[in-house]
Structures are given as C-alpha cells and as structure tokens.
Amino acid sequence: MKYQAPRGTHDILPRDSLTWAHLESSFRNLVGLYGYNELRTPTFEDTELFTRSSGETSDIVTKQMYDFADKGGRSITLKAEGTAPAVRAYLEHGLGGQGQVTRLWYTTPVFRYERPQKGRYREHHQFGVECLGSASPLADAEVIEIAYRFLTTIQMPDVSVSLNSIGRAATRAAYREAILGHASAYLTEMGAEDRLRIEKNPLRLLDSKDPKAIDLMKTAPSIQDFLEDESRSRFASLCQALSDLGIPFEIRPEIVRGLDYYTDTVFEVLSHHLGAQSALCGGGRYDRLVQDLGGPDTPAIGFGMGIERLFLVLESLDKLQEAPRIVAFVVAADEIARPMVQRICHDLRNAKISAQCDLEGKDMRRQLKQANALNAEIAVLVGEEELSKRFATIRDLATGEQRALPFDRLVEELQ
Ligand code: HAM
Fold this sequence. Notes:
By secondary structure, the chain is α+β, with helices and mostly antiparallel strands. It is built from 16 helices and 16 strands. The relative contact order is 0.12. Histidyl-adenosine monophosphate binds next to strand 6, strand 10, strand 11 and helix 12.
C-alpha cells in the first residue's frame, strides 16, 4: 500500500519550510514590538470548550469538529480554533490581573473537517493574537494594526481590511426579527434542521454559501442600522483610530464571522490574489467569552491569520524564500585526507560558514559532482600534497579558478 497524507492535509517540504520559517520569525518579531507574549496550548481540548465557545449553530461545531472519545471515555476535540484554548489557559493559569491588559500570541495547527479546496484544508495553521482586559477601541485598533502591519512587513500586496460592528445582545435580538422577516419565504423552503439553525442564529444567513441566500442577503437590512448608541460610538472611535494610524479599511455590514462569540467589532483582511477563499485573517471582539468560560467579566479582542493562505499568495507572486547556498564542499582527494576534511568542516561550521563533505567514501570525481549538485560556492580540496604542505586548494565552482590557502588561514580567509 502506498501511504499518502490524509485528505485535506499536506506536508511542508524543505523548499517551502524556509518561507514558513520566515513568516514565523517576522510575526514573532512584529508582535514582540507590541509586547505580546507567546502562548502554546495543547493540540486537543475537551470538546465542551469548543461547543460552549464557538456556538452550537456555528459550522465549526455542527459540521467540522474532529471529535472522538479517548480511551478513558472523555470527549476530546482536536483544536478547532485558537481563541477558546487561549482563554482557557488564561483562566486556568491566572494570566490576567485586575485592571491589567494581557497580550498573547500563538502559532498553532487548527483542525476542521472541511471540504478541501485551494486555501481550505482539514489541517491548517494560524498565527493569532489575543488582547484580553481592555474594552477600549484603541485595543481593537492595535489588534487590527498588527494584522495589517504584518502583511505590509511581508510585502503582501493588495490587501484590504473589511470592518463591521455586530453590536451586542439587544442589537442581535432586533436584527434577528428583521432578518427572519426578510428571509421568511426562503426559510419555508428549507429542511427543518437547517431552518432551526437559522432561527437560532440568523447571522448565519449572512455567511451562507448557498447562492440563493447570497442573493437574498444582497437586499437584507444592514445590522449597522440596529446598533445601540454605545456600539455605534465605539465603532466610530475605532474608525477614527484606524484613520489616525493610516490604515485603510472598508465598512462592510455583511461581515458577521462564523463563530458565535463575537460582540461589536468584527473584521477580516482579504487578499485579491486568493480567489474564493479570500480571507487571510479574521477576528473581532469577544467581550462575553471569558465570562462564558467561567472567568470574570473581561473584554477581549483578537484575530487568527491563515498561514497556508499567506503562503499561497506569496507563491503565486513568486515571492518564496530561496534556500541559502552551501558555501563550502570539502573534498578528500585521497583517503588519507578524510580526517582533515572532517576537521575543516568542523572549523568552518564553528565560524558559521556552511560546509558539507562526503560521508560515503566516494572518489574525488563523484565528490565534486556532489558539490556541483548541491550548488556549493566553493570546493575545498585536500589530498596528500595539501596535507604535506599544510594548505588546501580552494576551487570556485562557478569559474573553476583555484588558489591555495594555508590551513591555519582558511577560516579567516573564507569569512
Ligand atoms: P477563523 O476566521 O475561523 O477565525 O480563522 C482565521 C483564519 O484562518 C481565516 O481568516 C483563514 O485565513 C484561516 N483559515 C480558516 N479556516 C481555514 C481552512 N480550513 N484552511 C485554511 N485556512 C483557514 C478563528 O479561528 C478565530 N479564532 C480568530 C480569532 C482570534 N478571533 C478572535 N481571536
């Protein structure tokens, strides 16, 4: 039997992992400038953590969880998103303090039983930040600024920030009535189960993939018209703060997000280079979640950013990182030179010069072939003559030019 990676998953091959590492270090460096600290949570959690937080009507909970009973009969779910585990850890370890703002970031695999397509996988990876403890619109602006600035830092072209406010409970209740009224004819055509789901959370209609629903929603009332004064004024402050920071954004009332924990601010950052799965990043405020998971009243906001999608765009624009070339391939021209070859490799690596040599006892011609195949910059040749005169022959593999360098000046000269 030929084994393959499970459907919807993929290997990150050496040629691609350089770009992944570059994205990871760029993200780590950027969030460090804002004082965010890294959090690593387990790959699986108790299922209830996700059902309680993501919402019983969300696609993630109803269709996409990788859940199973472990050998002890516990219901376990592979991490279906990063926010609920971060909040769980925040509460479990008391990471917050009274009146304190806690800034966390993570990079994590996420598992969702999706229908795989380009940009949508069953295992994907996210960068995320969570800012807990501030209700200020400036916290919203900070989090959106991080997402936007990161994308600028990695030279992601043509990104746009889409922003909305979905208000709080009263807004949702009023909007529910309005949208159910607007969609009443459509709802009667639906199966009982789907209808119940929509009746529980009509916001799901706004991110439905059904073409009929998409059409219907074009003429739906806007949730912005149902905002309470407080939500309206904090949304205005956020828009002002983003303008002050020079971050371009577009207000799009149809952005409601697929997770139930959001309150007030929701946002997405889209790329015009991604086709159907255009969201590079999604996030929002979740002021009730910490309390819902058993903690004190703690406002919070964050985002998750899909690393595979970043990679897809960079790849389509031919902007992947190139592998650094090996500098030196050290060749044993005679058997007797092998210990010296090892020694030279060791000294070069100590001086942070990349070096390789043959491990298989190949003759000189095949060693040089290997050096060329590796695209090494130079070959360092050591044979009987070199040993007796205590120098190495350096061959430039591009031009074929050769010169002799004493062993004791080799590292210094190559540096
Ligand atoms: P999300 O919108 O479900 O939000 O995911 C965040 C990002 O992950 C998306 O914008 C997208 O780039 C990427 N993504 C999602 N699903 C897939 C998939 N199946 N394949 C590839 N990439 C995908 C969350 O997960 C929230 N926890 C974000 C958040 C943090 N909100 C507040 N704090």
